[in-house]
Design brief:
- With 85 residues, this protein is mainly beta.
- It has one domain (12-83).
- Helix content is 9%, strand content 35%.
- It is built from one helix and seven strands.
- A hairpin with a 2-residue loop joins β1 (12-16) and β2.
- The longest helix is centred in the middle third of the chain and has 8 residues, at 30-37.
Length: 85
C-alpha cells in the first residue's frame, strides 16, 4: 500500500457538525462550511478551537485556513465547525 498522495487526492480535511469531510483547498468560507454541514444559509456558525478550548463565532465574510494532512501521521483535529446553539 502506497502512502504517496496522487495529485487529485484531497489534501485537507474539514470537521463540520461531527463529520470529517475531504477538502481540496487551503481555505474554506463560511458558505462552504454551511454547505458541507447541510446548514441553512443564515445559520450562525462557530469555530471551536480544540487546542485553546474556546468557540469563536464566524462573521459572514469569514475564510478559515485549513491545515494540510500529513501522510503517515495521525490525524490531528484542531478546529471543529458547528452551528451556534
Amino acid at each position: 500500500m502506497s502512502t504517496e498522495a496522487s495529485p487529485g487526492d484531497p489534501q485537507y480535511e474539514v470537521w463540520v457538525e461531527n463529520t470529517i469531510h475531504q477538502w481540496n483547498k487551503g481555505t474554506i468560507s463560511l458558505a462552504e462550511i454551511r454547505e458541507l454541514g447541510g446548514m441553512p444559509d443564515d445559520a450562525p456558525v462557530v469555530a471551536v478551537d480544540l487546542v485553546a478550548q474556546h468557540e469563536v463565532p464566524l462573521p459572514e465574510d469569514a475564510v478559515h485556513e485549513v491545515q494540510p494532512r500529513e501522510l503517515g501521521k495521525p490525524l490531528i483535529k484542531r478546529t471543529h465547525f458547528k452551528r451556534l446553539t
